[in-house]
Amino acid sequence: xxxxxxxxxxxxxxxxxxxxxxxxxxxxxxxxxxxxxxxxxxxxxxxxxxxxxxxxxxxxxxxxxxxxxxxxxxxxxxxxxxxxxxxxxxxxxxxxxxxxxxxxxxxxxxxxxxxxxxxxxxxxxxxxxxxxxxxxxxxxxxxxxxxxxxxxxxxxxxxxxxxxxxxxxxxxxxxxxxxxxxxxxxxxx
Length: 189
Known about the structure:
alpha+beta
């Protein structure tokens, strides 16, 4: 599995670099760690792969690679390899995770479907292409509460780009996903 995953990841090598640095080795380690680690967090991935924790953390939180390019490339790939013999749906749904503290981006007291009540949590809206027995995630948008969007200092400290500091409802985020997939040339019925 490791070699076939590496062979596939090579198609994304162009995304994980800028004019002076290359981040592909970190992207490869992180992806392999997500596949192998039971807990799927930076600490466990670093331990499981004997990778440098600080380099991995920097790659995820500070490196200036473009996540939108990765997401768009994945969605185009998924669209091209799904069998064309059945209808393909773009499924939109939200999911939430209970969180402690207030530092994680978007965390706040809000409805969290995973526990069925208002709790301190993060919530995101996801897009998934589904075709019979096949399905794959193709997009995601983190929901920011109005409290987050109305606090520019908190957004700046968390590293949220200015363009993403505008409050959007979950329905608006869902529409953004649909429009993005259409503009990206993704096929769905």
